[in-house]
Design brief:
This protein has 189 residues and is α+β, with helices and mostly antiparallel strands. It has helices at residues 3-14, 55-60, 79-94, 101-108, 112-123, 127-145, 150-156, 162-173, 177-188; strands at 25-28, 33-35, 49-52, 64-65. The chain is elongated.
Length: 189
């Protein structure tokens, strides 16, 4: 590998860029460990690094997978992205329930602080903001497509009272649930 290309690739390892996870793998000759470019372990010295185009090539060269970044798991997804995807799946199935950060973190076997920080870094929003978005999308869908009572819609997405739901919905959309429903029906006619 030419020196300039090596230096550019090595710089992505030093910055721990997850963009290149699954594109190439970093073999550390002194430890015989292969990592993802985004691995949070100490950055190896450039003279100890060999880059591989696939995990299989690194394993064939005698390297073992890193126990921290686990390049053999989750395909091209980094462990952080995999954890965010697991959190998304849980939240999508339970947005109507009261899911606390602590309960979600416990289910994922991580600390609440780590979950909050990692999820926000990967998704750009917090788990609580994701729940808000899921609830709002479901409320908008049901208001636009059904004749269900506002109180029933509120209860189905986790609100105890229609008045609390109405205030929450108006704060997020700029209109009451009834006004939203009427506007959607006018548009579809």
């Amino acid at each position: 590998m030419e020196r300039e290309l090596f230096e550019r690739i090595y710089a992505t390892v030093a910055r721990r860029e997850s963009t290149y996870d699954g594109v190439y793998y970093t073999g550390v000759r002194t430890t015989k460990i292969v990592c993802r470019p985004s691995c949070r372990a100490k950055t190896p010295k450039p003279e100890n690094v060999t880059f591989y185009p696939s995990l299989e090539a690194a394993l064939a060269a005698g390297f073992r997978p890193c126990k921290r970044c686990k390049p053999e798991e989750n395909g091209a997804l980094s462990p952080d992205a995999a954890m965010a995807a697991q959190a998304d799946a849980i939240l999508a199935g339970r947005y109507a329930d009261k899911v606390t950060l602590a309960a979600l973190a416990d289910e994922l076997a991580v600390s609440p602080y780590h979950l909050q920080r990692t999820y926000k870094r990967v998704r750009g929003v917090s788990p609580a903001e994701t729940v808000e978005r899921l609830r709002r999308e479901e409320a908008e869908r049901r208001l636009a497509r059904s004749d269900d009572r506002i109180a029933d819609i509120a209860a189905s997405i986790g609100f105890g009272t229609a008045s609390h739901f109405t205030v929450w919905f108006a704060r997020g959309t700029g209109m009451t649930p009834t006004a939203y429903r009427n506007e959607r029906r006018t548009r579809s006619e």
